[in-house]
């Protein structure tokens, strides 16, 4: 049973290889047979693969990805945020076709302004004390946060293993990782004279946008004091630039669109969670509400590396492409040499031959059946008339048909062969050269015969008498001319159909005979 399977497999491969229309497609992303992209430490595995001692090729060197990003940065917390801006730079390297690791720096400036009164808090200092004293212990929080974030993220690509396409044009991914965040969170709690703000002139019953507009007109926007925090505010070398240092968890997702093998454009949403309620300078009820950063960015990504030594980043390469191309066009796969029986030697193996006893040398079609070019039922190797029109069929055993006469020729009289024509001789008396009445009757019958056979020419032979007879040739020639003149002038026979000849012989006759 197994031998039959291998036999059929070998036959199918042989037919595909012999087909002139078979397209040989090379891998477009990475050719596993190309050792120039494999590093030295993986060449042993690559050589084992090329020598059929390993099923897996060596992992190729791939390019690094340099990314530049910019976009909307927000702090989601207790205080409603205003649109902020963030920008970053990253470096990403593939660990395999699915996973990669990315180091990234993000810098951002965020601001927020509340629209309602809240109780003042005292945590690691109370910058709102003066404002709270003027408003019955109530404040309207605001903040400005200047942030620096270093991240190390693991990225998983979800769209590069494709079953029905060669190279991915889109890369969708998710990420998770660790960040360390330095945040300088400040508040605008005092006016230009160092006094707390008085909210008595603010109409808190108006629309939110109108309330914020009134508050912005009231404030001097200096952000002169550190915001309240839950501790761990560490000085970073400048007197008024104190920063919170926080560990954080990153989660995110993104999608990138390939423009070329060197460049792609992406959109990404990254959420950073430092598990701190004071990122916006004001905690939620009981401090249970933890703030987080949201960074929605447009990314410009560039692939770095020598294209002659490195492939694209592996997340842009479909690892199934080589396997599919090898199945479609085997270049490395070991295939058994097909040994297929062909009893009649016509080039079509027996399992596909519909006529297994074709005589040697007989032309056959792709099914092993003897060809019958004209379809007359007699195979070409027997057919003595290879192309017999259909109107001449049926044919005899030799493939020869009997064609009916064309309409134009059905009633046409059969022309006699020139060689079979019998023409009379013309006799002259004495030294006469004139065609008389007796000769005219004879020549009239000759003219009738020539008109019925327009393709026949006439040899007119005169006889000069005994050899050396005086005046014999001249007399013979004049008699020949008289005969031709009569037939041409009187009977309308073309002179070009006559051939003159003089020979020894009976001098009283002129002989007429077919010339063709």
Question: Can you describe this structure?
Answer:
The protein is an alpha+beta fold and 516 residues long. Among the domains are: 267 residues, Porin (Beta Barrel), CATH 2.40.160; 90 residues, 60s Ribosomal Protein L30, Chain: A, CATH 3.30.1330.60. The protein is 17% helix and 29% strand. The strands form three sheets. Strands 1-2-3-6-7-10-11-12 form an eight-stranded antiparallel beta barrel. The chain has a four-stranded mixed β-sheet with strand order 13-16-14-15. A two-stranded antiparallel ribbon has the order 4-5. The radius of gyration is 55 Å and the shape is rod-shaped. The two termini are 78 Å apart. The N terminus is likely disordered. InterPro entries: OmpA-like, OmpA-like_sf, TSP_type-3_rpt. It comes from Chitinophaga fulva. GO terms for molecular function: calcium ion binding. Keywords: Membrane, Signal.
Structure, briefly:
Pfam families: OmpA. This protein is α+β, with helices and mostly antiparallel strands.
């Amino acid at each position: 049973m197994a031998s039959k399977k291998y036999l059929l497999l070998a036959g199918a491969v042989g037919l595909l290889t012999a087909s002139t229309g078979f397209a040989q497609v090379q891998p477009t992303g990475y050719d596993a047979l190309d050792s120039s992209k494999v590093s030295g430490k993986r060449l042993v595995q690559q050589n084992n693969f090329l020598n059929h001692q390993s099923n897996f090729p060596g992992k190729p060197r791939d390019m690094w990805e340099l990314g530049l990003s910019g976009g909307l940065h927000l702090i989601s917390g207790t205080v409603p945020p205003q649109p902020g801006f963030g920008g970053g730079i990253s470096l990403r390297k593939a660990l395999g076709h699915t996973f990669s690791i990315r180091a990234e720096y993000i810098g951002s400036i965020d601001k927020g302004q509340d629209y309602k009164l809240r109780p003042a808090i005292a945590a690691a200092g109370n910058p709102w004390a003066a404002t709270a004293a003027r408003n019955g212990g109530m404040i309207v929080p605001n903040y400005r946060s200047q942030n620096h974030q270093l991240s190390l993220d693991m990225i998983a690509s979800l769209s590069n293993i494709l079953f029905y396409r060669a190279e991915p044009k889109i890369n969708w991914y998710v990420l998770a990782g660790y960040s360390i965040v330095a945040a300088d969170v400040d508040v605008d709690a005092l006016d230009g004279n160092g006094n707390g703000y008085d909210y008595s002139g603010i109409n808190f019953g108006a629309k939110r946008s109108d309330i914020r507009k009134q508050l912005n007109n009231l404030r001097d926007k200096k952000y002169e004091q550190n915001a309240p925090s839950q501790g761990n505010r560490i000085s970073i070398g400048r007197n008024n630039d104190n920063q919170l240092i926080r560990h954080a968890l990153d989660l995110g997702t993104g999608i990138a669109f390939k423009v070329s093998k060197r460049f792609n454009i992406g959109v990404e949403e990254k959420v950073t969670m430092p598990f701190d309620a004071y990122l916006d300078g004001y905690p939620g009820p009981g401090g249970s509400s933890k703030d987080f950063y949201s960074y929605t960015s447009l990314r410009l990504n560039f692939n770095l590396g020598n294209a002659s030594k490195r492939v694209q980043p592996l997340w842009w390469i479909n690892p199934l492409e080589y396997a599919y191309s090898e199945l479609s066009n085997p270049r490395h796969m070991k295939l058994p040499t097909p040994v297929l029986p062909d009893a009649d030697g016509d080039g079509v193996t027996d399992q596909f031959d519909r006529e297994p006893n074709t005589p040697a040398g007989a032309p056959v079609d792709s099914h092993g059946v003897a060809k019958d070019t004209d379809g007359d039922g007699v195979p070409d190797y027997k057919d003595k008339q290879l192309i017999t029109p259909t109107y001449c069929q049926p044919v005899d055993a030799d493939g020869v048909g009997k064609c009916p006469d064309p309409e134009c020729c059905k009633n046409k009289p059969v022309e006699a062969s020139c060689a079979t024509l019998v023409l009379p001789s013309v006799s002259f008396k004495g030294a006469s050269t004139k065609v008389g009445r007796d000769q005219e009757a004879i020549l009239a019958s000759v003219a009738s015969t020539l008109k019925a056979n327009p393709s026949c020419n006439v040899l007119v032979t005169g006889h000069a008498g005994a050899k050396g007879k005086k005046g014999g040739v001249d007399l013979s020639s004049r008699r020949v001319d008289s005969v031709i003149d009569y037939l041409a002038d009187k009977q309308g026979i073309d002179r070009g159909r006559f051939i003159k000849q003089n020979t020894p012989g009976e001098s009283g006759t002129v002989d007429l005979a077919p010339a063709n």
